[in-house]
């Protein structure tokens, strides 16, 4: 059976999205494991319903359910889409929040269009990822990004990098076209910043205790511009999402 293929983003008409590590080329595929159990036991999908299955890297298969049972969801592929990455990459440098606010920040950022998330060990972070905690923290953030991608039906799961120090963040800013650091005392509003048409824009969000003077100086020296969102002071777990929403409105949702 041949499967139609193109690079257009499929219309979002309510069909659920499931993610597999690899997508077979054949006309049928099996959504098994945790994805399959969720489809059968929670969503209660049945024969004939339309679904999407992606690899999280831009490939999305549209199809219909052939059978749903203990083995999972068997799907007949109808079309295959190769969705290219956006022309303008949105990067969130997120200082480590306390407890579950970290995964929350990742979920919100994913739903609002982020392409890459950098966990940042800022000097005033209460949370500290040391040794084995770093691996567990990154794994939890990556799981949150994957779950939020399915919920928001995104063909690409945002990359979550290894945690970085302030020095590493400053070095990484050389690779972006525009770096913006959120600061409550900044004079320039985010809404008035001129954005590049392509490349990468980084949004830097400090911890609950705020940025240290040394971090402000270092980020500025690395090329970051201080901007403010508005008169309110947001939590670190929601400030990034607010900034990404403002950027997405101007670059992707217009």
Descriptive report:
With 254 residues, the chain is of the alpha/beta class. It folds into two domains: 17-82, Hypothetical PUA domain-like, domain 1 (Ribosomal Protein L25, Chain P, Beta Barrel); 88-250, Alpha/beta knot. Helix content is 29%, strand content 26%. The chain contains six helices and twelve strands. The chain has helices at residues 33-42, 101-111, 132-152, 166-172, 213-221, 236-251; strands at residues 4-6, 17-19, 28-31, 50-54, 59-69, 72-82, 88-95, 116-120, 159-160, 178-182, 199-205, 225-227. The strands form two sheets. Strands 1, 2, 3, 4, 5 and 6 form a six-stranded mixed sheet that branches. A six-stranded parallel sheet has the order 9-8-7-11-10-12. β5 (59-69) and β6 (72-82) form a beta hairpin. α2 (101-111) packs parallel to α6 (236-251). The relative contact order is 0.15. The mean pLDDT is 90. Residues 87-247 form the Ribosomal RNA small subunit methyltransferase E methyltransferase domain. It catalyses: uridine(1498) in 16S rRNA + S-adenosyl-L-methionine = N(3)-methyluridine(1498) in 16S rRNA + S-adenosyl-L-homocysteine + H(+). This is Ribosomal RNA small subunit methyltransferase E.
